[in-house]
Structure formats: structure tokens, C-alpha cells
Design goal:
By secondary structure, the protein is mainly α. Helices cover 82% and strands 0% of the residues.
Length: 113
């Protein structure tokens, strides 16, 4: 959770265009929309991470946090697969497919085993 916050959520919230360049995205001259959506995604990711963190320390919230992790992982995996099929994203985003799939499977395994 902490590593995801440091590598993805916080950079997206505070420096989305710098994050995009590190992950090999081309940034258009009019970058206002990308900046806005990057910050929105970073804020949403931090919110999800907060709930997941609460689930890690509060047994009553653990099932919800694991289900949320699985859902977010599955949706992000789908978004990245679509981008890979359409060939509209850099290879760094394609590589994340495996990470999101593993996070989804791991969360489901912890939730239902």
C-alpha cells in the first residue's frame, strides 16, 4: 500500500505530468486536461488506499478492503489491457497488467480463502 502511494498516487496527485513523462507518456502542448485527470486519479487512489489501510488494521473492515482491492485491481487491469490492445499506451503501462492481475488474484485469495 505504501509503495503504491509513493510510486503512483502521490506523484499523480502532486506532479501528474512529471509522472507521465517518467512512465514514457507523451505530454501534449495543451496539458490542462491531462493535469486535471492525473490529479483526480491521484486523489481517488489515495482515497482507496486509505480504506485499504484501514482494512489492514481493523478486522471488521478487512473483507471490504480486500473486495475493494480486488475490484480496483480488476478494473485497472481491464483498462490497461484495452490500452495494450489499442496500442495507445507506452510499454510501461503494458507491464502494469501483470501487477494489477496479481493484486486482484491476491486480494481475492485473501478474501475468500
Amino acid at each position: 500500500m505504501v509503495s503504491f502511494a509513493v510510486v503512483f498516487a502521490l506523484p499523480l496527485l502532486f506532479a501528474p505530468l512529471r509522472w507521465a513523462r517518467v512512465f514514457r507518456w507523451e505530454v501534449a502542448p495543451d496539458d490542462r486536461l491531462a493535469l486535471y485527470f492525473g490529479r483526480c486519479l491521484g486523489a481517488a487512489a489515495l482515497g482507496l488506499l486509505f480504506v485499504m489501510g484501514r482494512g489492514a488494521i481493523d478486522p471488521a473492515l478487512t473483507p471490504l478492503a480486500l473486495e475493494l482491492s480486488a475490484l480496483a485491481g480488476a478494473l485497472l487491469c481491464g483498462v490497461h489491457v484495452a490500452g495494450a490492445i489499442q496500442r495507445v499506451q507506452p510499454w510501461t503501462e503494458d507491464a502494469e497488467i501483470v501487477l494489477y492481475a496479481a493484486a486482484t488474484v491476491g486480494a481475492l485469495a485473501l478474501r475468500f480463502l
